[in-house]
Write a structure and sequence with these properties.
The structure is a homodimer.
Chain A (H helix, E strand, L loop, with lengths): L2 H12 L6 H12 L6 H11 L5 H14 L2 E6 L2 E7 L5 E6 L5 E5 L4 H11 L2 E12 L1 H6 L1
Parallel strand pairs in A: 3-5
Antiparallel strand pairs in A: 1-2, 3-4
Helix pairs in contact in A: 1-2, 2-3, 3-4
The structure holds a DNA duplex (25 and 25 nucleotides).
DNA sequence: GTACTTGCAAATAATTTGCAAATAT
DNA sequence: ATATTTGCAAATTATTTGCAAGTAC
């Protein structure tokens, strides 16, 4: 298991979850993924490591990881059930519309915007969600 | 048909779509909705106006409206298949986590942020997607 | 009149659940 | 040892499609 997957595994055991062969395989897939993966894709790739794994387990594990904040759902109009690894802290995703790879970035400073919206609308803002779409360096030059 | 629904209807016919009883009913539901609605909810409400409407038609009509940009999908972790009316121009949605109502706001100025991310990552940013969550004035005081 | 639109029922796809067997700690 | 986790198959839910009949223009 490579370094990044080990970190993710620690998050699981720190919360009292057992580290099974299946979960390790799923974590390895996610850690090594460049982009966002849906449950079926995770399942396919995890089978390389752990042939007996079931799709149900993938669903259950992704739920746990999403709840822990280890992974985050990536939303876009074509489908909203893909996940990408998430770092600690509030980060946002930048998704390549060419190859689907996902990069995290520091969320700039939105506080001025949030305050403006709050006073404009009377809402108490609790959370925000920003996602950017574009072409990564490779896809930008390539096609 | 009230004013707002009439405007939406014009968008449909301007694109060569016929204005059927069913489509009018769906538009009326959307125009008068305070929040986001999923296909099943639209269907239930549209039946008041047009009892013979089928769920299939709701799906098909929502697809058309989303393609035209008349409505926009509202994404959040609990479900990503709800829609809210969208104004022309680039606006963002503010969703109340209490009652589910949706308000649009002018998207502040994100250009500095976008440029920073672009130069940081090498991506060519094509689109962005911002959604805020909070409590609307009523839900804020109420509970 | 004609092409677009509809509702139905059936097909497909996606996700969840119950449960006995397996396993990490 | 034991509570958690698993895989399977079945159940459920959501969405899409084919097609003959209906309807807006």
């Amino acid at each position: 298991m490579e370094a990044s997957a080990k970190k993710l595994a620690e998050q699981l055991s720190a919360h009292g979850y057992k580290l099974t062969r299946q979960r390790r395989a799923i974590l390895a897939v996610i850690a090594s993924s460049e982009g966002h993966l849906n449950p079926a894709e995770v399942y396919e790739r995890a089978k390389a490591d752990c042939p007996q794994i079931g799709l149900t387990t993938v669903y259950r594990t992704l739920d746990i990881l999403a709840k822990l904040g280890t992974i985050k759902r990536v939303h876009f109009d074509g489908g909203c059930h893909s996940y990408a690894p998430a770092s600690r802290g509030h980060r946002h995703h930048l998704v390549c519309t060419g190859c689907g790879c996902v990069v995290e970035f520091e969320g700039g400073d939105l506080s001025a915007l949030l305050e403006a919206v709050a006073s404009q609308t009377g809402f108490k803002i609790e959370d925000h969600w920003l996602q950017l779409f574009g072409k990564c360096p490779a896809c930008r030059d390539g096609s």
